[in-house]
Amino acid sequence: MPVTIAALFAVTGCGPGGPQGYTNDWIYPRDVTTVYVEMFDTASFRRGHEYDLTDAICKRIESETPYKIVSDRNAAQTLLSGRMGAIRSSVLARDRYSGRPLENETQFTVSVSWKNLETGELLINGASASASASYSTQLGQDFDYAAKVATNRVAERVVELMQTKW
Fold first, then answer.
1. Fewer CB within a 10 Å sphere, N or C end of the chain?
2. Nearest 10 degrees: CA dihedral of 73, 79, 83, 87?
């Protein structure tokens, strides 16, 4: 029986010789300690969301990573920059009699780059992250509510991109 279990682990990748391998190593690059986050640019006609996104990313980096956000670019080891794509809003469901929207969705997409300023190496090169949030005016929610939720979700995705690849 123990031979069967060992063979099962070897085939599924849970054993030491498995194709995926597991580790308890750090999930973020160890050679980075400080990050300067540039104000994200936007391609959207809806202004102001780039400020909320930059703020949300900074807060997530400070709370979820071992990195320190610095306000002086010259004191930073790395630079995180990006651009928000068009902010999209669409109708998910309509009232069948009046045709008015019952539920809407807001979608944010960003392109992110992360550069090591000491070596010039691109840690992230134009990777894309996106998130969406739904809202209903019947529940007292509006576009701004969904935009804040989507902003926080896309900030979470950006910080996930900063993790080392497996």
1. N
2. -100
